[in-house]
Amino acid sequence: MPLLTVLIGVILLVFLITKFKLNTFLSLVITAFVVGLILGIPVSDISTSIETGIGGQLGHLAIIFGFGSMLGKLISDAGGGFRIAHQLIATFGKKRIQIAVIITSFIIGLALFFEVGLVVLLPIIFVIAREVNMPLLYLGIPMAATLNVAHGFLPPHPAPTAVSQVLNAPLGHVLLIGILVSIPTIIISGPVFNYFLHRVYPQVYKKILIFLF
């Protein structure tokens, strides 16, 4: 039942955002309220539960995004993002720039949490997209996919480390298997997904390009 409730919540959230074009934050609050009702939480306690959940998440992320944005601004102002972007473009070329983004994201994703890797890489992605005149989404999807896969599959990130402890599996084996599984997962959820999304819904790439420039 809880799993079914979560599925209903995800479908409702996507429906509110895509069909009714509601604000994402408002859609999350409405979905959380509906899910609370389905789970049988008293109406008087739902608002407290939502407040606690949002507050806990923001408390965790506020510091990361706060200092991360400062780090990203420092990288941008110091010209570090510009130099890194140009080096990647010169090494891989425009046609293989997605590979450069994936490799860079994978290396950073091994050592940093998803949120931290995101704020470190975003300034570089912006510069690359501008220099090669490419939609931001074309590079953002492979970057996000790679960081997510690294965070979810590879130790020392929390989830794979916890799984290895539960299964009494050596971390080295989990890391090796995680890397083997990560490669096709990143390819499918990054460049392959980009290819099909561009064919099915090319307008989104044009909108992102206009927004960027």
Automatic annotation (TrEMBL):
Keywords: Cell membrane, Membrane, Transmembrane, Transmembrane helix, Transport
Segments passing through the bilayer: 26-46, 58-76, 96-129, 174-197
Pfam family, one: GntP_permease
Signal peptide positions on this chain: none
Subcellular location: Cell membrane
GO molecular function: gluconate transmembrane transporter activity
Topology in the lipid bilayer: Multi-pass membrane protein
Keyword check for Amino-acid biosynthesis: no
Species annotation: Leuconostoc suionicum
Taxonomy of the source species: Bacteria, Bacillati, Bacillota, Bacilli, Lactobacillales
Keyword Transport found: yes
Sequence similarity: Belongs to the GntP permease family.
Protein name (database record): High-affinity gluconate transporter
A GO cellular component entry from the record: plasma membrane
InterPro entries: Glcn_transporter
